[in-house]
Amino acid sequence: MKRGRLSVAIGAFLIPALGLALGLGLGAVTSAAQASPTSGSHANQLYSEQIVVLNCLGTPQVRPSSFILACADANDYLTKLSWTSWTPQLASATGTQEENDCIPYCAAGHFHAYPVDVVFWGSTALVGQPGTQRYTTVTMLYPGKRPPVYNGQKYVEGPQTVTMSLWGPPPNYSTFPGVSN
């Protein structure tokens, strides 16, 4: 059921947008998104494993089970991520977003859970890491209840879709433990 919901969300909204944003033909993005992980050759599977997402410490991760969105204080993060794809074009998962309401202030606030469909997309090469790409953007689609946003006067239900840039590697990325040249 979750996989079907995510496929519909990606197909209806994100695939046309990605095709335009990345300058790719729609057919290339669509076929990559629809390919099953076992239908490609072993070489394709190894290549897709070289696509990483950097956590807020700059550590490369593949198919993380959780991912911090608010790096400074960890008051907003994704958890229980179940990956349905991880390809050079995009990675998609279902999970839960946990967000602190910070009311009356963050240390005394409460975390609230929101079901979310997550898509990492847009890739660029990691400097000094031949053959390794990193995702640069995350899009979160909310199939139900959504995190509130402040509209200048009060808190209201947030948008159904949120897209944000992911952080890049730290300046001395090639010197981090676990990363070889």
Q: Count structural domains.
A: 1
Q: Give the SSE string.
A: HHHEEEEEEEEEE
Please give the number of β-strands.
Answer: 10
- Biggest β-sheet: count, sense, barrel? 8 strands, mixed
Based on helices, strands and strand pairing, what is the structural class?
alpha+beta
- Can you give the helix content as a percent range? 10-25%
Which stretches are low in confidence, meaning pLDDT under 50 for 5 or more residues running?
A: 12-48, 173-181
Strand content: 35-45%
Cα end-to-end separation: 42 Å
Helix count equals 3
Q: Quick one: overall form? A: globular
Mean pLDDT: 75
In terms of quaternary structure, what is this? Answer: single chain
Radius of gyration: 17 Å
Description:
By secondary structure, the protein is α+β, with helices and mostly antiparallel strands. It has one domain. 20% of the residues lie in helices and 36% in strands. It contains three helices and ten strands. The chain has helices at 2-21, 26-34, 42-49; strands at 51-54, 60-61, 67-68, 76-86, 90-100, 111-125, 133-141, 148-150, 155-157, 161-165. The strands form two sheets. Strands 1, 2, 3, 4, 5, 6, 7 and 10 form an eight-stranded mixed β-sheet that branches. It has a two-stranded antiparallel sheet with strand order 8-9. Helix 1 (2-21) runs antiparallel to helix 2 (26-34). The longest helix has 20 residues, at 2-21. It is globular and about 50 Å long. The termini are far apart. Residues 12-48 and 173-181 have low confidence and may be disordered.
